[in-house]
Amino acid sequence: xxxxxTLDSVSYRTPDGxxxxxxxxxxxxxxxxxxxxxxxxAGKTTLARLILGELAPTxxxxxxxxxxxxxxxxxxxxxxxxxxxxxxxxxxxxxLQRIEAGRACDGDLDLADWDLPGRVAAALxxxxxxxxxxxxxxxxxxxxxxxxxxxxxxxxxxxxFIVLDxxxxxxxxxxxxxxxxxxxxxxxxxxxxxxxxxxLRGMDRILEVSEL
Length: 212
Hints:
The chain is an alpha/beta fold. 33% of the residues lie in helices and 24% in strands. Strand 6, helix 7 and strand 7 form a beta-alpha-beta unit.
């Protein structure tokens, strides 16, 4: 299986130099689902941020040869946002509406993504939100719905690899089942930070982060 993400001799120290979270860490992630476990503060989220390019290693190299999407543990929709806003598709959908109404602006036809409505509907259905309107106030979503919407947004970009940080937090039984089903059907690579044993049982491998 080809490598999508490689960590080669990676070390990471906190910016103040007080703690070393990783030392000479070498890992390869391919198309498998990897569960990441460990105590709070051990470095699980830091490892995810290194993969996402949000942090730079103190030493070593992180190589990414994939389209990577992520879902954060804390997901708070901004005021005034809609479901379409959070999916990042509002402007593109408005463009299609202008064209269909005969009010196209310069460049609309060149930029039109005619397949977008179908992809949006498929992503929402995949996470159990098929009945949620794109105009729905995002602030009115439950915590579980917001998490599922974040999952749908990650899928919209057709990533090769997804990073999920505690994806079943705040979800009810049906929501947790939807996440497990999504991961079971996922054909790309995944790094899943979780303490949910039902989710971890579906992983191809488990990595544990422990303090140095």
